[in-house]
Amino acid sequence: MACLTDLVNLNLSDTTEKFIAEYIWIGGSGMDLRSKARTLPGPVTDPSKLPKWNYDGSSTGQAPGEDSEVILYPQAIFKDPFRRGNNILVMCDCYTPAGEPIPTNKRYSAAKIFSSPEVAAEEPWYGIEQEYTLLQKDTNWPLGWPIGGFPGPQGPYYCGIGAEKSFGRDTVDAHYKACLYAGINISGINGEVMPGQWEFQVGPSVGISSGDQVWVARYVLERITEIAGVVVTFDPKPIPGGWNGAGAHTNYSTESMRKEGGYEVIKAAIEKLKLRHKEHIAAYGEGNERRLTGRHETADINTFSWGVANRGASVRVGRETEQNGKGYFEDRRPASNMDPYVVTSMIAETTIVWKP
Predict the structure, then answer these.
(1) Domain assignment of residue 98, given as a range
(2) MF terms per GO, please (predicted)?
(3) Do 65 and 163 reside in the same domain of the chain?
């Protein structure tokens, strides 16, 4: 008699060309990922060849009950690390039946920016450092922390090892390998400063694909924590007081920045970011004011600053970039719950298109 695990792990490709496509989209809050699955007749590698699909937008806060149909447009395909075989994950964005992007569809606006000739010519690269916190399921208290109490002060936990310093490594490693299996360009992981907090990095990715990959990496993480019986939060300051918050530091470069003389282009771009500081902060995540206090490796939310190798600045330029006279910089302001479509496209629009 087959057990449940055997049935879950059945390899469909042994008996049928049919496969399962898990359609993923972003719900009405802007952070609630949703998904549902459908059977399709044979392997597909081009998202434009996948059928559009609909869902009940009144149940996700994206449409009224009397006109609730929202249409999913497939945009990017990834291998499914849960069902494996020929099965796929499909990142979608959302439209009305008339073909108009719904208000919460941030990908549509980002794609327009990235497809503009001026931006496309600069081939913007991104590396996003996604921090997150693992919580105990029944208490919503960080993993490894005594219930109702606190661990020892920060210091030994960052990139730490050992049962008293590292909490949730099995979940984190499972996520790392699952992302690589899926085809996400995940470039690393590490334990963070606050115990129970971790980070994964996605990139380098070009243009709109950066947002697609970060969202699918978040989806995979949520699915794995579901299996592990822990909760993941992207709150930028899950524990108030003297504990580090969680960000999504965004590393960025353009073709001009990567060439000889690129350091001058970087400095000009940073000056443009300074002039639009308030606009960027407003779009960089909810609750970010609780994190950007000027303490715990952050800059104050109200003041723009930049520096070489300065992790307390709004924007950090690496020592290697300064020495080479070209390279990239890191925008340290985005919160862990930022929308990567919004942040990546806004940085490109400000630094490439916008004329002060």
Answers:
(1) 19-104
(2) ATP binding; glutamine synthetase activity
(3) no
* Alpha-carbon 117 to chain mean position: 25
CB-based contact 64:74 (threshold 8 Å):
no
* Closest of 249, 266, 246, 248 to residue 257, by C-alpha: 266
- Please check whether residues 192 and 336 belong to one and the same domain: yes
Same domain as 92, residue 124: no
pLDDT digits (tens, 9 = 90+) for 41-78: 998 999 999 999 999 999 999 999 888 999 999 999 99
Q: Does 70 share its domain with 136?
A: no
Own/partner pairs for 11-15, CB < 8 Å, 24+ apart?
A: 11/84, 11/85, 12/83, 12/85, 12/86, 12/87, 13/85, 13/86
Q: Across the chain, how many H-helices and E-strands are there?
A: 10, 13
Give per-residue pLDDT as tens, 19-44: 999 999 999 999 999 999 999 999 89
DSSP string spanning 39-50? Answer: EESS----GGGS
CA angle, residues 204, 312, 330, in degrees to nearest 5? 15
What gap in Å lies between CA 348 and CA 356, rounded to an integer? 14
Q: Is the pLDDT of residue 296 over 90?
A: no
Residues 93 and 123 in one domain: no
The pTM score is: 0.97
Based on the fold, state whether residues 243 and 289 are members of the same structural domain.
yes
Is the CB of residue 38 less than 8 Å from the CB of residue 20?
yes
Report d(CA 248, CA 217) in Å as an integer: 13
The model's pLDDT over 187-204, given as tens digits with 9 standing for 90+, comes to 999 999 999 999 999 999
pLDDT at residue 284, rounded to an integer = 98
Question: Do residues 267 and 351 make contact, with C-beta atoms less than 8 angstroms apart?
Answer: no
Which pLDDT belongs to residue 13?
Answer: 85
Taking a C-beta distance cutoff of 8 angstroms, is the pair 326, 261 a contact? yes
